[in-house]
Write a structure and sequence with these properties.
Layout (H helix, E strand, L loop, with lengths): L4 H19 L1 H15 L8 H41 L2 H24 L11 E7 L3 H22 L3 E8 L5 E8 L4 H5 L4 E8 L8 E12 L14 E6 L7 H4 L4 E6 L4 E5 L5 H32 L9 E6 L5 E4 L5 E2 L2 H5 L4 H16 L5
Parallel strand pairs: 4-9
Antiparallel strand pairs: 1-3, 1-5, 2-3, 4-5, 6-7, 7-8, 9-10, 10-11
Length: 372
């Protein structure tokens, strides 16, 4: 199909202008200058918490400005290239314009979705836990497939990840795993993945090749920062050490370096076994516990606000997405109705269409006053 380049350029420019207005580029440039001045202070690191806040925000503001300015520059260059292609009647140049417009459409759409992430914790790194639910060995295998899907998604985007803990199941797959995605807005981007994911397929573990339905739960919480003041009293926790299990290096599996922390007042249990050092594992496990407690506090505060507003808080349900591999191929989100028949690509981390639709869906729900 032939692209109407002038109309496309006009539409993309208008969309980008709206995004620039929401981002308020002038305000970002002023904030950048202030942050650069603070970062240049010789005593910056005398207060480590403040220094981390300044340097982290400085990096985010630089990235946001660069992204918006690069898109505007690309759009202007595409307009110039289109004029040259028309003036010289150059088919190859026209094709190059069409290709660039397709890329700009995707990139501007992604930035538009980013402007919807204005929640208190949306800018944070994301702490993701995947856990096998109903379905026996198939559920454990499914949990491992989901974990791989998210790690591949992060890899596609160049986002660093770190696996804190993996509890392997006896026959195949995992009982649970916890990992962090380190990227600006990782939490806001992945928050919609929280819930139960359902898989329907011919079980590879069933000798009679029967169809099996299995479930895995995904929990997504923001990573704690020093300003959150999530205090954990030593008398409120029980710390157990044990030998790491599953695949790993020689040193990992031969010492009691793995750490499990139980928060007695809430019953929350977290563990970490990815480091050789018991001290490092304890620090990582404590960070996970603080993130879980922060999310618990946030949900309690939201429930109180819902009660004050008279909001019954009716949930849209815990099951969020179905992945059907037999008798047909389809992945479908139960909230947004987004679906695809390319199940292999989804399970290999191509989930952006689902993630972006979740963000837009959530914004619509909040705009309608449901807060869901």
């Amino acid at each position: 199909m032939t692209v109407d380049a002038p109309a496309e350029l006009k539409e993309l420019s208008a969309t980008l202008s709206s995004i620039e207005a929401v981002l308020d580029l002038d305000a970002l440039r002023r904030e950048l200058a202030e942050l650069q001045e603070q970062a240049a202070q010789p005593d910056l690191w005398s207060d480590q918490d403040n220094a981390q806040r300044v340097t982290s925000r400085l990096s985010q503001v630089q990235a946001e400005l660069r992204r918006a300015e690069d898109l505007r520059r690309r759009l202007d260059d595409a307009a110039v290239l289109h004029e040259l292609a028309e003036a010289e009647d150059d088919p190859a140049a026209r094709q190059e314009v069409d290709s660039e417009l397709a890329g700009l459409r995707r990139a501007i759409g992604e930035l538009e979705v980013r402007t919807l992430l204005g929640g208190e914790y949306d800018r944070r790194d994301a702490l993701v836990t995947v856990q096998a639910e109903a379905g026996g060995v198939d559920a454990a295998d499914w949990a491992q497939m989901l974990m791989r899907m998210y790690l591949r998604w992060a890899e596609r985007h160049g986002f660093p990840t770190e696996v804190y803990d993996t509890s392997f199941a006896e026959e195949a797959g995992i009982k649970s795993a916890t990992f962090v995605v380190k990227a600006p807005y990782a939490y806001g981007t992945l928050a919609g993945e929280h819930g139960t994911h359902r898989l329907v397929r011919i079980s590879p573990f069933d000798n009679q090749h029967r169809r099996q339905t299995s479930f895995a739960g995904v929990d997504v919480v923001p990573v704690v920062q020093p300003a959150d003041h999530v205090e954990v009293d030593d008398k409120d926790i029980r710390v157990d050490v044990y030998r790491s299990s599953g695949p790993g290096g020689q040193g990992v599996n031969t010492t009691d370096s793995a750490v499990r922390i139980t928060h007695l007042p809430t019953g929350i249990v977290v563990s970490c076994q990815n480091e050789r050092s018991q001290l490092q594992n304890r620090a990582s496990a404590m960070a996970v516990l603080q993130a879980k407690l922060l999310e618990r506090r946030r949900l309690q505060e939201r429930a109180q606000m819902d009660a004050l507003r008279g909001d019954a808080g009716g949930s849209w349900g815990n099951q969020i997405r179905s992945y059907v591999l037999h008798p047909y191929q389809m992945v479908k989100d139960l909230r947004t109705e987004v679906e695809t028949g390319n199940t292999a690509a989804v399970l290999d981390g191509d989930i952006d269409s689902f993630v972006e639709a979740e963000i837009r869906w959530k914004q619509q729900q909040e705009s309608a006053g449901t807060g869901r």
